[in-house]
Amino acid sequence: MNKEKTSKYFTTPIYYVNDKPHIGHAYTTLAIDVLTRYGRLLGQEVFFLTGTDEHGAKIAQAAEKSGKNPQDFCDEISGLFKEAWKNLNIDYSYFIRTTDKQHEQKVKEFLTILKDKGYLYEGEYQGLYCVGCEKFITEKELVNGECPDHKCPPQKVAEKNWFFKLKEFLPQIEGLIVSGQLLVGPEQAKQEVLGLFRQGLDDISISRQNVAWGIKLPWDENQTCYVWVDALLNYWTALQQEGRQYLWPADLHLVGRDILKFHCIYWPALLLAAGFSLPKQVFAHGYFTINGQKMSKTIGNIIDPNDLVKKYGVDATRYLLLSQFPFSSDGDISLDRLGQKYNSDLAKGLGNLTARIVTLAGKISIKGSVEASENKKLAEVKNNYTQALGKLNFYEALSSVWDLISYCDKIIDTEKPWENRENSQQAIAALVVYLEEITKLITPFLPETSEKISQQIQGGKSVPLFPRLP
Ligand SMILES: [Zn+2]
User: Fold this and answer.
1) How far does residue 98's CA lie from ligand 1's centre (Å)?
2) Is the dihedral of CA 124, 128, 134, 135 positive or negative?
């Protein structure tokens, strides 16, 4: 078997350690976890990369504010991300940190390649810089003189920087995106990126003069690598660290809409300049509000994923986060609705159905077999599920499984198999087959529950899966 043909390489963005993990991070990371588990069930080798982005002025400031040195501060927050992913049963292959010595070394090597190839030049940068965004900002982007995202005035910066010849690569990248060789999804995100080419883009500065907390340029130690270039390179350096170069390029970079420009324009340009192949797909998921409001410290509505796990359990949290609305759309997470959905879909839906079928089948020890009509229903569900996951539509994939759950509930309510077991053997057999199928389909989303249901089917004894919440 050819290893390359069956292997996949998926990434989340690496998360900025200026603050601890919230459910936005969890949402993105869970999505890749589901795709990873799904791929592995199909027999693929899947390398799932996540990690933390730890350099830059913003981190140095946050560290200072909390009275710690930057490395200690990064160790602490990075540890919180690892802990949260453990609590959510996230099965990543590798967790990269941009303060890893090997990453720093590889970033230097990459920058040296660009310099040797003549794609970097020295220049004077004058402009406005938002520390909150860690990016240069134009007058046009300001609202009342302030960064619209951070509600604070940008800094005026004039300094010597190293620039990357971005403009040389723009026509080629635009062509690759238009032709679909570099897939950008969903369509709305693709149009947003193509709009950026039409607005026009300049060469970018890839170094900073007065940011000490970063990777020094090997040929100019007064300059540190621009934190975004440092961060993007994690997708390449991680494979080098792990001896997995054969997985290159990434099959999917999952991102939020706010970082499309970096992933769909800067990143491909850097790779083209170095002579490396490009990722196959960049996909931007939607944003959500909490009870109708943007998640923010000021409002105080930031949700810690660990709190959800404490309240609902691991698998229920995984289900609740990905079943709210389609992944590529924006949506709202209402805390009341999470509780209602837990009770309706998990306690009552999946949990109750499992108990009913296991109890029925256990009593008369039936082994499942199905007729053609039932196979048709299963084929339809599996087809919808596969199609949906192919488009990263977790909501649709789960809906198709929950459609099968309601279908089974209807069979039980109509046939009332407990009233006449002798005549209901066929119906019960079919129900067992359906439940086995449901168990398989939920595995990437609810891995522990799937395991528990399999054990209950085998043991013929029902144990409550999701206790009803008050
Ligand atoms: Zn900003």
Assistant:
1) 22
2) negative
